[in-house]
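Risk register update: the risk that structure generation would not scale has been downgraded. Supporting records follow, first protein first.
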Amino acid sequence: MSYKSVYLQDTLSIHEIYSIHYFEYMCDFSFPGESHDFWEFLCVDKGEVNVLAGEKFHVLKKGDIIFHKPNEFHDVNSNGLIAPNLVVMSFSCASPVMTFFEEKVLQISEPERLLLAQIIQEAKYVFAGRMDDPYQEELIPSESPRFAGEQLIRLYLEQLLIQLVRRYMVRPDQPINPTIVKSIKQKADGELFSQIQEYMESHICETLTIEQLCKSNSVGRSQLQKLFRTRSGYGAIEYFSRMKVDLAKQMIRENHYNFTQIADALGFSSIHYFSRQFKRITGMTPSEYASSIKALSDQPG
């Protein structure tokens, strides 16, 4: 037999990245704006922000992603009420397909959200320094990076952009293709995970047990734990605890309540237990977190 190879074409490739950020902003944060000769996108993970892109004003909410083409002026501001969590990445890409993203505000799907999370996770081990520093202008390689971490970041980012193009760039005579080929079970698991997430969000001020989660969502105990381990890396109750702490961080940044009020509002038995849980998950006490975020926000541009 005589085999012949097929050269795999690159439709979209990225080999230069300038920034990878995950911001937890105060509710009154304001970035004065900038322009640069490379691409940038901003995705709202939680909360809401106001963005100026060129001459267009946008109000972005959870799941919205906006792309800024090279040399487009853009700024971002909190709305004074809701403390946002944002993913911001900038990169170079000369592919003609990038014109698709010009002046675009899109909605990410669950597979795309997971790709963003994988990029953030890899970046923690590939680059040194804080990912929430808005004034960091250079990615410094880590002294002990994960094997092939930079390549995975590139592949995840390319896949993210390709999936968005596939999902949104559809011909009128062509049915919409899913962003990623999944089995029926995988799709069902994703829907169940989202359902339980929503249930947790609606009961975030309460104390939930495994039994309550199983009964209210018609799922077995072992299936529930396996689902959360696979999807998040944590058990269901640990995931719920981290949701509480994430909301506590947002409430601290919004600066409307003191720590005791936040602990009470989120169903913690005492301020001391709240502080212990907060430090266990974030590595900082609530006071240290508040000081850290304020210090970043107060840095000069």
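Supporting record for the second protein:
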Amino acid sequence: MVDVDNELEDIEITALLETVYKRYGYDFRQYTTDSLKRRIHTLMEKHSVTTVSELQNHVLHDEEWLERFLLAISVSVTAMFRDPTFYWALRTQVVPFLRTYPTVKIWIAGCSTGEEAYSLAILLQEEGLYDRCSIYATDMNQGVLKVARDGIFPIARMKEYTDNYLKAGGIEEFSTYYTAAFDSIIFNQALKRNLIFAQHNLATDQSFNEFNLIICRNVMIYFNEALQKRVFNLLHESLAVLGIMALGNRETIKHDPHSIYYEYIDEKERIFKRIT
């Protein structure tokens, strides 16, 4: 990629993000600048695009390029039972609360390719709760949602996933939850029965239900302060009183006005209970 004056590039990036928002409704305008620049540069280098303005032209006129842009910009780092201690905390400290409800509504916001949703489905099934749960797993990116709905993942990752599952307190053979074929696995249909994968944009969309548990982990670290505030407000509106919210281990509600309505269940794992 050729060198571009930083000030000019900032102007081009602002124009690109405004174009994506006005043309397609995806709002990246309040994402942190450094993270955005890195991802845009990586996309441009991969496809030999020399300027942000050229990238903007591709994205504006070609929906295949839009998909490339969304996949490059959206944060899709995930794994089954990622951060096993978090899932152990869910199993031991959150599940007892969920048992008190006849039905449980759960929202996984920013679900990416679905590994977190399948992990939670497995955990709830082992705890005898899955049949009374509905898990709404949402993401802004249709491409990753298709992967999530299909439930097909590389077999090469199963050793890592199995290790995570066992560290998270898994009580079965992890292989009982999927079928292997060639270089892929597919999760059992039984795990999908209470999973609803749907498109939702945290930056622009509104609350769509009231939930007993909301999981939004490692999403807001990529947002600037204004967008974080908007998303916290959205999550708060969507969480029932006495409901539980889980954030990533680098995220907190400590400085948000809504923090007065919450108490820690597990400070280390960033799990909160709404008390009023």
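The mean pLDDT is 93. On this basis the risk owner (M.S.) recommends closing the item.
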